[in-house]
From TrEMBL:
It comes from Eiseniibacteriota bacterium. This is NADH:quinone oxidoreductase/Mrp antiporter membrane subunit domain-containing protein. It comes from the Bacteria. Keywords: Membrane, Transmembrane, Transmembrane helix. The chain crosses the membrane at residues 33-51, 58-77, 83-101, 113-135, 155-179, 191-209, 224-246, 286-308, 328-351, 363-381, 407-426.
Length: 429
């Protein structure tokens, strides 16, 4: 890269990068929340990159691990998401996808991500400008104070408020934009997809939390936001659950489960309590949600590369489960946690949101959450049945699965088990 280009872009990225470094520095001393899961996810990506290096990838391909550092930093520093991070995260992922020009699936994923996220960002930025024009200020607290005076028609500011939330819904994978995580898991490299999806979704959740900060000062706007987020969550949960029922490819199942976990965050934000908009997110902390999401996606995505596409008739299990069943079981545990199977950290998150919905009286949203959970549980059982297959007299294949993906599944599975046990211990105290 030309030094002139580097010098020219430094002023544009200095502010967001300095914010990332400060937030990371604030989180590292505690070494809790999403920091350990983000580091484990980064280590799993490094292991998968080692596998590509062994299969003939160049040194520049292995150096791609540096690209994942900002995405892991976004997960590790949640919920401290700066306003510029969503655009930077999308630009980074699209740039990495565009680098592999000979890979048609990479190019297709990059193009889809660019037009979906680019349009959503443009509309949300337009909504922010309309809000600034309507209120005469860019400070959120001042905007709510001005709007509370009810000096003009609600059509203008309500439209602007709706548009400003759009990119958060899209980044979380809410329907009808729930296709992009599944496309990314199917088309992108296995070391890139988990952190890319998790980083973008965490940015989307952070955007929504930052945009509704202090809106309880403006009750009319608060009611509109609750209604918008509730509708978006209901559609995302139902559409995601229906989509999951018909998925045949394991990679796309993982992507659809990622979008359902994004819908879970939308449902949490739509069910606040104690009168504060951010209160609904405190029972499902963004930090815990982000760490679990990245870790479960890393383990489940690695497993999906060795799982077979659903067939009409029963067949023998894939090589991973016939040669290395314990590695496969830990990969399945990550998949189960993503699907909120009881006994996993993911189930605790879904149960917390269900309790919030009951407290808030959101019965329709609670029913949609139940439909999505039943679909996710069914997908997990189907994946379990296909993983072990039917008993066959044939000997297992002679060639074993490489140690790098098995180590990645052991790593992510072990940290998820630690999260589950620490959660049980915290509940019993």
């Amino acid at each position: 890269m030309s030094p002139l280009i580097v010098v020219s872009i430094l002023p544009a990225v200095h502010g967001p990068l300095s914010g990332l470094v400060k937030a990371l520095g604030a989180m590292l001393p505690a070494l809790h929340g999403p920091v350990i899961p983000a580091l484990a996810c980064l280590a799993a990506a490094a292991l998968l990159l080692l596998l590509e290096a062994r299969e003939g990838a160049g040194a520049m391909e292995v150096a791609s691990l540096l690209v994942l550092l900002p995405l892991a930093g976004v997960v590790a520093t949640a919920p401290h998401v700066e306003a510029a991070w969503p655009a930077l995260a999308v630009a980074l992922v699209v740039a990495v996808l565009a680098r592999h020009r000979e890979d048609l699936l990479h190019s297709e994923c990059g193009i889809k991500l660019l037009w979906v996220m680019g349009a959503a960002l443009a509309l949300s930025w337009g909504g922010l400008e309309l809000l600034a024009i309507s209120t005469g200020t860019r400070a959120l607290a001042e905007q709510w104070a001005v709007l509370r005076l009810d000096l003009e028609s609600s059509i203008g500011w309500s439209t602007a408020l709706s548009l400003s939330l759009l990119v958060g819904v899209v980044m979380l994978g809410g329907a009808p934009f729930h296709f992009w995580p599944a496309d990314l898991f199917q088309g992108a490299r296995p070391w890139l997809a988990p952190l890319a999806v998790a980083g973008i979704q965490v940015c989307g959740a952070g955007w929504l939390l930052s945009r509704v900060d202090g809106i309880e000062q403006f009750p009319t706007g608060q009611r509109i936001v609750y209604s918008l987020l509730g509708t978006a969550a209901w559609v995302a949960l139902v559409a995601g659950g229906v989509t999951l029922m018909v998925q045949r490819r394991p990679e796309r199942r993982v992507g659809t489960l990622a979008s359902l976990n994004g819908a879970l965050m939308l449902a949490s934000l739509a069910a606040p309590h104690r009168g504060a908009m951010g209160a609904g997110a405190r029972d499902i902390p963004l930090a815990l949600w982000a760490g679990h999401l990245a870790l479960a996606l890393a383990g489940a995505a690695t497993l999906s590369r060795f799982a077979a596409v659903s067939a009409g008739s029963p067949s023998a299990g894939p090589v991973l489960f016939r040669r290395h069943p314990w590695s496969g079981i830990l990969g399945l545990y990550a998949f189960f946690s993503l699907a909120a199977v009881p006994g996993t950290p993911g189930a605790r998150l879904w149960l917390g949101v269900a309790r919030d919905l009951v407290s808030a009286g959101r019965v329709g949203l609670l029913l949609a959450l139940a439909v999505a959970w039943l679909a996710a549980f069914g997908a997990a059982i189907r994946q379990l049945r296909e993983a072990f297959g039917v008993v066959t007299p044939a000997a297992p294949p002679g060639r074993p699965v490489a140690w790098q993906p098995r180590a990645a599944m052991w790593l992510t599975g072990a940290v998820l088990v630690w999260m589950a046990l620490s959660g049980i211990a915290g509940t019993s105290q």
